[in-house]
Amino acid sequence: MLGQVDTETGRYSQGIEELEKALEIFKDIGALPGEMKILEALSKLHYRNGAKKIAASQYEQALAISNLISMPLHLKLTL
Q1: What distance in Å separates the CA atoms of residue 16 and residue 19, rounded to the nearest whole number?
Q2: pTM, full prediction
Q3: What are the tens digits of pLDDT across the range 23-37?
Q4: Which terminus of the chain, N or C, has less C-beta within 10 A?
Q5: Distance from C-alpha of 47 to C-alpha of 60, rounded to nearest angstrom
């Protein structure tokens, strides 16, 4: 995923932009597993960058989807 490549190479703003574009696509087509994974990735990125409130919100959204579709999250945050 392009957004993850950007973040792994230090281009955080571009990575966030790409992940947010992907999130909108998954939302538009109703692909909950994809939406959950993108929210999880965004949460991790924001947490690393110190935006803990944004990270917590996105993690909570991912967790709600996880519970809805019975698919576990891989990210564990301590906020």
Answers
A1: 5
A2: 0.80
A3: 999 999 999 999 999
A4: C
A5: 13
